Amino acid sequence: MKTVVITGGTDGIGRGLARVHLERGDQVVVVGTDKAKAEPGAWFIRADLERRETADGLESNFALTYLSRFLLSHGLAGLLGRAADPVVLNFGGAGRFGPPRWDDLQQRTRYHGLTAMIQAGILNAALAVDFVGRHPAIRYVNTFPGTVATSFAGDYDEAEAAQICRLRATGKREVLAR
Length: 178
What we know:
Elements: E1 3-7, H1 12-23, E2 27-32, E3 43-46, H2 60-75, H3 77-81, E4 87-90, H4 113-134, E5 139-142, H5 158-170
Parallel strand pairs: 1-2, 2-3, 4-5
Helix pairs in contact: 2-4
């Protein structure tokens, strides 16, 4: 039996991934905002994923979509290194975009929510390269599934809220085959 930890495991790709692993008999831990949306049989850890600046002064989009993946992957590397076939699967890729804004990684100036998510995705590509350099026995898969339907919520201006509404309407709800 494997233990699988899925952040964002109550919606979309994360929920589908949780379902697949539960059906395979794996132990599944999901991190999300609503326990009622977790797949039956999964362990649940509540995390507040609202958009804001953290108590540590980090822009929460940066903390959620990049820093948390950095800390989780490196923090679990010791345990993963003892597994038979360890892999980190990160759905935080950015697709095809330019370089990050190295002078403002947390987008403290000219902030836009979608740009912040793209920026974090670009940083996740660098994370993957760095991680396998430090932990060559652990596979690291960084992918960009395209637009997905998610429950991610926050405070948006009118134009950004309309854009998110359009993206949710066209986003993939689940891309995993059973």
